[in-house]
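Sequence in, structure out. Go.
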Amino acid sequence: MACTGKYKLAKSENFEDFMKALGVGMVTRKLGNKTSPTITVTEEGGEYTFKQESLVKTSEIKFKIGEEFEEQTADGRKVMSKMTLTAPNVMVHEMKGTNGGKDSTCIREFLGHEMVATCMVDDIETVRTYSAV
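Output:
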């Protein structure tokens, strides 16, 4: 199973507390909790494209596995990111905060019928489950 596909958010646990721990403002947290983004992950020639679309915002990043890259997150934070594969269907997204921002990690498991994203900052964890579309 590859780390690609198109998925829509179906279930979200503890996302508000996760965003709060990252320092995301209240208005952005409320919007973030109300949207059900669609995530499309494609790969061509070793370069991945990760596109997140919602009613509020569309963002897209391109990256190669194991190479650090600069990213502006959907909530506007600037981070230095690196993606690694820990299994053929498991992608780890490490985000190092810049300008005093916090570090966070998201582990995405691609299971065919769904993608499960488990993200952590400090001791706060959110689990977001996306259904294949």
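Check: The chain has a mean pLDDT of 93. Strands lie at 5-13, 38-44, 47-53, 58-64, 69-72, 78-87, 90-97, 104-110, 114-121, 124-132.
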